[in-house]
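User: I'm curious what two different proteins look like when written out as structure tokens. Can you demonstrate?

Assistant: Sure. I'll show them one after the other, since each token string lines up with its own sequence. Here's the first protein:
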Amino acid sequence: MPRAQVNGVNVYYEETGAPSGKPIVLISGLGTQLTRWAEPFVQRLAQRGYRVVRMDNRDAGLSESFDAAGAPDLKAVASARSAGTQPALPYTLDDMADDVAALLTHLGIERAHVVGSSMGGMIAQLLAIRHPDRVLTLTSIMSTTGNPELPRATPQAQEA
């Protein structure tokens, strides 16, 4: 089982495709494992010449867990952020974006196409902001910036 020590955290990852392929990193959402990216999808990317890297985010799947910290109180986190204060958390999305950058370094990948789903999209966006030199393209699926001042989805979009 491939693991990498990144930012002081053990992260589980898998690679599919030729090592010489165009690197693409798939980042999963909240609490989901890398297996959320369906194997047929990953295989199609590899067949099209991509070196596909999937990882379990910290605290998910086979990566290091933070059980001792307990589950975050999302309402308290949202309230603290609304008040302009930093909530007490064992890690942040910034840390998770840095994990991805460190994994790329560990794998010898200078730049990659980055795809994130849901919270993974937020991590991908932060990776592009914090490490723009590491991102070739960014695809953010079913995600947001987290800015509470952005308009909500329309009822039609929510139905879809």
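Here's a second, unrelated protein for contrast:
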Amino acid sequence: MNSVTVRTYGKLNLTLDILGREGDFHMLDSIVCTVDLSDRVTVRRRKDGLVRIFMHGMGSEAISPEENNAFRAAEAFVKDYGTKGADITVHKNIPMGAGLGGSSADAAGTIDALFRLYGAPQAEKKAFADRFGSDTGYLLTGGAARLRGRGERVEHIDIPDFYALLVCPERRVSTAECYQKFDELESPEPPRSERAAEELARGNLEWAARLFGNHLTRAAEALEPEVGRTLGRLRSLSPLCACMTGSGSACYAVFAARELAEWARSRYRGGGDLFIVKNIEPASLWDIPDMG
């Protein structure tokens, strides 16, 4: 086996509760799900110990290797496991800097491929991935899950199918700046994840959606007012709910049927990139490896 190709999927935060801090890290309780918006990652063996990465699409060509989670993960893998290097090619369709987990998804796909290519112990893969972002370990499997702690505690759950109109404003929000602004605002909100998880377990999407929300929203709106304007436009379309994912700036409106999401897209008036997305489960997550 000389190469592995996988398809890696973005995620939405249906809830994101910030429960405090432990040292430098915020403690989270978040319900997440992967959606059918994906990147394609190919990892090929090298005969030397070098790691190279080639990015294509969505402006990703401008990312330096040192700032690229997939590259950092691959270099760490080569060092930790004493393997040869790899050439990594990423074709991006997940918008960057939008709270959709694209960087973590690419790292997860790269890690998964490297563990397969070099026969590293599968039992060690999740802990290794957790070193490269709060979503990376979770995105090794994806699907619907409740993430706690720094995001490393993953409990897979079942949720009803839904569709969302996803809007990615042109201006992005820095994750680090958003958390810093959250700390400055000091305006705690009640947690949502526990009650939302209970409604989702009952299959009650409509009631669960009333509980969806994100503690980082006010901070993101303060940094980039277009986030608030986008949420206002989405709410005017009568969805089950409208929320921000991650630290922004992407926002989404939830609908029970694709036809409703398509109708909302046709009537949305505002800037940014628009997508119709659906939640997907782990059984449909990864492509069959492309072995060469």
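A detail about the second structure: The first helix runs from residue 69 to 81.
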